[in-house]
Amino acid sequence: MDKEIILITGSSGQLGTVLAEKLQEKYGVKNIIATDLRVNPTFNGVFETLDVTDFDAIEAIVLKYKITQIYHLAAILSANGEKHPLSTWDLNMKTLFNVLEVSRIHKISKVFFPSSIAVFGNNVERLNTPQSSNLTPSTVYGISKAAGENWGKYYFDKYGLDVRSLRYPGVIGYQSLPGGGTTDYAVDIFHKAVKNENYECFLNADTTLPMIYMDDAIRATLELMEAPKDKITVRTSYNISGLSFNPNQLETCIKENYTDFKVTYSPDFRQGIANSWPMSIDDLEARKDWQWKPKFDIKSLTKVMLKNLELKYNNNLINS
Ligand code: AKB
């Protein structure tokens, strides 16, 4: 294998924080160039401050480090995006175009672009939503992801740029905090339980959504990126499934460990977004093309989340 030097945008975000470490383990610390607007204080490795809306700045980093692959994670998520629709569109698309163009010009070998279940809208089968569903997203974030998927395919078809993508469900991990999504409750609730506080959930108790545990999400990303090129039959973005649950089911699981834990339900504008999303995902193509299989269910996810957050809070590795 040729030496890979990998640029990550949005490396201080929820997924980027964990993905950067995994890529360091795989490719060597000095070969991973983490970039974001702000450094994550716990990150150890090569970091550059980067505003991905600035084409010259990203090009300078690509040239400086002789980058061979890019994981473009920087984006504004569903709930935050609804507060500023036009600037969210500008940022999500401008950063993607900069990454695609710099990759085309400098012959980057592979690009990863995260899409999301937010690309689906009200018109799909909400149970086991198929890969090939019509995309009518209800949020500006979802619209930008649906457009981004098609731009990735366009760059592949027209320029041969090897862009690969996953439609992530809500990602749940203890290592980092989510930043402004509709599925954020499923991480916040664990922090409250471990701090012995009550939780006020912004979705109704029976709102079932597709989710994925962080380890599964990272493994799916690496398995997709390592799959032989001729196995990639979906050039927009692959559906991937982890598990599905609603806030009430998660509350019940947490209460098996924290019997006094109390959750109240006070839905806000994010309920409307969640109602437009699938309840579960059919990921047949990912299973067929690169043998995708999730490992975590609601019980194993709850166990690992509580155990690791307890360790973090007890050792003051996280602010209360
Ligand atoms: C969000 O809630 O916006 C994200 C997502 C599912 O893409 N977690």
Automatic annotation (TrEMBL):
Domain of life: Bacteria
GO MF annotations in UniProt: L-threonine 3-dehydrogenase activity
Limits of the NAD-dependent epimerase/dehydratase domain: 6-240
Pfam families (UniProt xref): Epimerase
GO biological process: L-threonine catabolic process
Family the entry assigns: Belongs to the NAD(P)-dependent epimerase/dehydratase family.
Name of the featured protein: NAD-dependent epimerase
